[in-house]
Design goal:
two-stranded antiparallel ribbon, globular, alpha/beta, Xyl_isomerase-like_sf, IolE/XylAMocC-like, single chain, 12 strands, Sugar phosphate isomerase, 13 helices, TIM Barrel, eight-stranded parallel sheet, isomerase activity
Length: 255
């Protein structure tokens, strides 16, 4: 498979643009070359209009980020939304701060395992995306992501590792990510440059290819380890977001 058929974009990157001009945003995403996207909410738009424009601009939803509390309280709604957008790969996007405790992590794992038990036979894949807390906090001697993705009675939660946060937490992303071989269908591709405070994303988050993450090695690992999509996520940019996404897209193509 050509690598261009495996590069996706997380629409969180263009959340502000979607609020202001949904059709223009999807057209520009298409014009960059993307054909695969991850959803991250409607950003104030009617879901029917979002779906219409995704179809118009030939953008296929390959993953969905779902708010954490909905896995606790709205599993039926998640399923309906997933069917509506034709995507059964769904991730808990971020464990809210009030649940970043031992009890919260245990409750999260229980909710995700229960969701997987109900939905796996329907073809769903339930996963967890990792921001910063997953890599240096531990529960029962395990990093948070490892604890939550450890199997229970043969049921496992998929991982969605994020190269930026792995590096920001002080780990070698190439070595660390190997623990998710065969169970990470989507990897978030984000670059990092050291020398700034962890919270200073205006400086330590840079365009792909401008920082320290070894994306060539990540792709080599991914091609041998079952990765289906390399998903570009750019939380913020120092220039026009579409220029940044285009630069990142072509950098990965060039690899």
């Amino acid at each position: 498979m050509d690598i261009k058929d495996k590069i996706a974009v997380q629409l969180y990157s263009v959340r502000k643009e979607m609020e202001q001009d949904l059709e223009g945003t999807f057209k520009k995403i298409h014009d960059v070359g993307f054909r695969f996207v991850q959803l991250d909410g409607m950003r104030g738009n009617d879901p029917a209009e979002v779906l219409r424009l995704l179809n118009k601009y030939e953008l296929k939803v390959v993953g969905m980020h779902i708010k954490h509390d909905r896995f606790m309280n709205d599993l039926e709604g998640i399923v309906s939304e997933a069917y509506y957008f034709g995507c059964k790969t769904i991730f808990d996007k971020y464990i809210e701060e009030e649940d970043q405790t031992t009890a919260g992590y245990q409750a999260t794992k229980k909710a995700l395992i229960q969701a997987a038990q109900k939905l796996t036979e329907l073809g769903f894949r339930i996963g967890l995306h990792n921001p910063e807390y997953d890599f240096n906090e531990q529960i029962n001697g395990r990093y948070v992501m490892d604890f939550i993705t450890d199997p229970v009675n043969g049921i496992s939660i998929y991982a969605e590792p994020d190269t930026y946060w792995i590096r920001a937490a002080g780990h070698d992303e190439v070595e660390f990510i190997k623990r998710y071989s065969g169970r990470a269908p989507i990897v978030h591709m984000k670059d990092f440059i050291s020398g700034f405070e962890l919270e200073d994303m205006d400086h330590n988050l840079v365009e792909i290819g401008q920082g320290e993450v070894n994306f060539r090695a990540i792709i080599e690992w991914g091609e041998a380890s079952g990765v289906e999509y390399y998903c570009i996520e750019q939380d913020r940019s120092k220039r026009n977001m579409f220029e940044t996404l285009e630069a990142s897209y072509h950098y990965l193509l060039a690899l």
